[in-house]
């Protein structure tokens, strides 16, 4: 794992939260992107070397909807940049972590992603991101 790639924050109203975080960072989000398969609409802020990803649910069965229903808005996951997502999946599986998807899936912002179940990572939802060079 190279570095923290982004911090994912679950929000109820992306427009409202974009305004709040634009005020906080003094800069606008650099993109907004819908990831249908994940049931999310995301926006991204670049803060130094790290990105902040805001996520609004676009479907009632979205993980974000479930998270907010259960816990309220707030930090949802931490994503780490990896150079070789398959090698990392193999290493982590052997190290006893629970990987939620057998094959990497298309994430936002031109990434291939996998998630680790929070029950295997001390209660923190971890995402691995590799640049999707295709
Ligand atoms: C990919 C697009 C974008 C990107 O960066 O490119 C994204 O980041 S999309 C982000 C949204 N997608 C995901 O989060 C996919 C991975 N998440 C999941 O598969 C589920 O959310 C899962 C398996 C973590 C939980 O789903 P489940 O249906 O089991 O929900 P429960 O509420 O029953 O949760 C079970 C258990 O896990 C705890 N939990 C749930 N979410 C989180 C979380 N974000 N952080 C920490 N813990 C979490 C929940 O509290 C339950 O624990 P328990 O002790 O049983 O209450
Ligand atoms: Co993410």
From TrEMBL:
Keywords carried by this UniProt record: Metal-binding
Entry similarity comment: Belongs to the methylmalonyl-CoA epimerase family.
Biological classification of the source: Bacteria, Pseudomonadati, Bacteroidota, Cytophagia, Cytophagales
Xref: PANTHER family: METHYLMALONYL-COA EPIMERASE, METHYLMALONYL-COA EPIMERASE, MITOCHONDRIAL
PROSITE patterns the UniProt entry points to: VOC
One Gene Ontology MF term: metal ion binding
Protein name in UniProt: Methylmalonyl-CoA epimerase
UniProt cross-references to Pfam families, sorted A to Z: Glyoxalase_4
Record domain VOC: where: 3-131
Organism: Echinicola vietnamensis (strain DSM 17526 / LMG 23754 / KMM 6221)
InterPro entries: Glyas_Bleomycin-R_OHBP_Dase (IPR029068), MeMalonyl-CoA_epimerase (IPR017515), MMCE/EMCE_epimerase (IPR051785), VOC_core (IPR037523)
An annotated GO BP: L-methylmalonyl-CoA metabolic process
């Amino acid at each position: 794992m190279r570095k923290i790639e982004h911090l994912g924050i679950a929000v109820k109203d992306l427009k409202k939260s974009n305004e709040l975080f634009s005020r906080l960072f003094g800069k606008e989000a650099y993109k907004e992107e819908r990831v249908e398969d994940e049931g999310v609409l995301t926006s991204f802020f670049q803060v130094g070397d790290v990105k902040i990803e805001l996520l609004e649910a676009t479907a009632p069965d979205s993980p974000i909807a479930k998270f907010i229903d259960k816990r309220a808005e707030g930090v949802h996951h931490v994503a780490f940049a990896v150079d070789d997502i398959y090698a990392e999946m193999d290493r982590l599986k052997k190290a006893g972590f629970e990987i939620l998807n057998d094959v990497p899936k298309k994430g936002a912002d031109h990434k291939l992603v996998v998630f680790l179940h929070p029950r295997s990572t001390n209660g923190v939802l971890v995402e691995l991101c590799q640049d999707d060079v295709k």
